[in-house]
Amino acid sequence: MPSLKCIDCKTEYPTTARIYTCSACSGLLDVVYPMSEFRGERLMSTWDWRKASPKPIDQSGVWRFRELLPDAGESEIITMIEGNNQIWDAPRSAEYGGLDRLAFKHLGMNPTGSFKDLGMTTGITQAKRLGATRVACASTGNTSASMAAYAARAGMKAVVFIPSGQIALGKLSQALDYGAEVIQIDGNFDDAMRLVRELANESPLYLLNSVNPFRLEGQKTIAFELLQQRGWQAPDRVVVPGGNLGNSSAISKGFRELFEAGVIDRIPKLAIIQAEGANPLYRLWLKFQQSEHVEDLELEPIADAFTLATAIKIGAPVSWPKAMRGLKQSHGLVESVTEQEIADAKAIIGRDGLGCEPASAVTLAGIKKLVAAGKIDPAEDVIAILTGHLLKDPDYTVNYHSGSLGFTDKNGQRIQLESRFANSYVKVPAERKAIFEALSL
Questions:
Q1: For 128-148, what is each residue's pLDDT tens digit?
Q2: Pick the CATH number of 87-112+215-414 from 3.40.50.1100, 3.90.1150.10, 3.40.50.12160, 3.30.70.2740
């Protein structure tokens, strides 16, 4: 039977406990399993067999792996057949990044357009198990869209706290359409996160941000499905965007569990990429590389975090201790990239016919930087994670290609980004001759 266990003081709790952090020390919680009971070959054959099953819980790219998920009866599971996100070769992105080859696993192809669905199916299912009728989250967009959709499927009320003016309209439209109650606060994401955690501790609202360990259990199946799609052969490295750090924490936990179960014989190296204006983990990582007393290091939040890639515009990531754990266990890397590097990488990913939201593009931008610095070998077998769909933030894309993408910095100065890979549209009169000339026909 799985249980909850504090990653710091190791206190254990039953999975029926309605807690988000350790009651003894406030540390983050893991869902842990009796790993000695699992055998790699049996798990692989069971999971491979389920891919051919017509049952919704077997078709789900999350619940197919339920031996290593929290207990839930079939009637309790809320699924939208999430997962089953393909891995695509990306030759143009590989060339741009300096790699011999590169593949993207595109989680933007989930039901609500982001990786959040993989965690929300387990989070909402746990909420149902505990008898919750209202769920809540703080969000820059994707979490709110996903929670609202899954809550609607479960017949629950969703309450979303969003930072003022810091959410892409494509994502906000989803939360509204799925029936969520949206509360816009005068503050940033970290303010919203602090408030929703306080409310969840003092009310019947069930918290579904990534501090909730059941959320991350669904997201760890990214590692499971990735390996299943590759015939259970581990890549050399997996590259992940870094925002609240739940995804990188979950993926690293998934790889570690499969290693312990004997499914794989090595853990892929993890690389986490952050935007330069919202990079508290990167700053911590630099100190970690230089310090002799790493156990004393703490992440220092960035009060005025900024990036146009709003999904990772987070200055105080909740899951940073778990992310650091994953980096240490996998001999990983952390990198930071500029707004210009993100915008250009996003345009290149589009040239491979994939497209993604801005936050996803930090992966390619980071790969290019790490290869140039000699920290990633061009011959490595690399999988990069794309977390959100292109249509999550279409204004960003149109502004880049039309040459109008930019932002105002802390000093009130307008910073205009270069559209180095622009594919701008052309205006012509409604005449055949003009069209022929524009198309060089």
A1: 999 999 999 988 788 999 999
A2: 3.40.50.1100
